[in-house]
Amino acid sequence: MSNANEKRQAGEAAIRYVEDGAIVGVGTGSTVAYFIDALADLKDRIQGAVSSSEQSTAHLKRLGIPVLDLNATGSLTLYVDGADECDPHKRLIKGGGAALTREKIVAEASDKFVCIIDSSKKVDVLGKFPLPIEVIPMARSLIGREIVKRGGNPVWRDGVVTDNGNWIIDVHGWQIVDPVSLENDLNQIPGIVSVGLFARRAADVVLVGDKLL
Ligand code: 5RP
């Protein structure tokens, strides 16, 4: 069961990684919402934020934090985001909130990825949480068949359209012992926009509540 108190602790603890004058990469979700609330107290000491979703953009703007375009900022020093699962190597499943593609872009553009979770997200092996995959709509069935060939059970997240106008398939039934290989393999299938595995680019720091993993 997820723990709101630990999510708040993690969101607030991540503030210690924010340096004066920084442009901060900001993820998406209920844990990140605590981080955004805490970031608002420092808004006069940072240049602004690069957001990973329309949801976080709205939250940032509501609190008066400038939202900047990644194409204009260049690379970032810090990215803060939550996760759906985290293994002992800081490899993650993300995308429960359907924001995985922009999250992956901002994570890739950042020197340090600080992941904020509650203890319910810690696992030994990734895959109990169904793996989200963002797909181009016309490729949904093709990708579903490719997933079945690989032993997964694809379920279309019916009714959900991502910020990029695409669809989400959640893959059940995979025990992901080699997440880097699976991420690389899935990235080759035409029509897959992003895989919710953050293994090639794992987190650098994981805060479970206010404690380091
Ligand atoms: C959104 C994500 C979130 O980081 C993930 O779903 C965790 O969310 P929460 O902090 O609400 O538990 O990947 O796409």
Automatic annotation (TrEMBL):
<comment type="subunit">
    <text>Homodimer.</text>
</comment>
<comment type="similarity">
    <text>Belongs to the ribose 5-phosphate isomerase family.</text>
</comment>
<dbReference type="GO" id="GO:0004751">
    <property type="term" value="F:ribose-5-phosphate isomerase activity"/>
</dbReference>
<feature type="binding site">
    <location>
        <begin position="81"/>
        <end position="84"/>
    </location>
    <ligand>
        <name>substrate</name>
    </ligand>
</feature>
<feature type="binding site">
    <location>
        <begin position="94"/>
        <end position="97"/>
    </location>
    <ligand>
        <name>substrate</name>
    </ligand>
</feature>
<comment type="pathway">
    <text>Carbohydrate degradation; pentose phosphate pathway; D-ribose 5-phosphate from D-ribulose 5-phosphate (non-oxidative stage): step 1/1.</text>
</comment>
<feature type="binding site">
    <location>
        <begin position="28"/>
        <end position="31"/>
    </location>
    <ligand>
        <name>substrate</name>
    </ligand>
</feature>
<dbReference type="InterPro" id="IPR020672">
    <property type="entry name" value="Ribose5P_isomerase_typA_subgr"/>
</dbReference>
<dbReference type="InterPro" id="IPR037171">
    <property type="entry name" value="NagB/RpiA_transferase-like"/>
</dbReference>
<feature type="active site" description="Proton acceptor">
    <location>
        <position position="103"/>
    </location>
</feature>
<dbReference type="GO" id="GO:0005829">
    <property type="term" value="C:cytosol"/>
</dbReference>
<keyword id="KW-0413">Isomerase</keyword>
<dbReference type="InterPro" id="IPR004788">
    <property type="entry name" value="Ribose5P_isomerase_type_A"/>
</dbReference>
<comment type="function">
    <text>Catalyzes the reversible conversion of ribose-5-phosphate to ribulose 5-phosphate.</text>
</comment>
<dbReference type="Pfam" id="PF06026">
    <property type="entry name" value="Rib_5-P_isom_A"/>
</dbReference>
<protein>
    <recommendedName>
        <fullName>Ribose-5-phosphate isomerase A</fullName>
        <ecNumber>5.3.1.6</ecNumber>
    </recommendedName>
</protein>
<dbReference type="GO" id="GO:0009052">
    <property type="term" value="P:pentose-phosphate shunt, non-oxidative branch"/>
</dbReference>
<dbReference type="GO" id="GO:0006014">
    <property type="term" value="P:D-ribose metabolic process"/>
</dbReference>
<feature type="binding site">
    <location>
        <position position="121"/>
    </location>
    <ligand>
        <name>substrate</name>
    </ligand>
</feature>
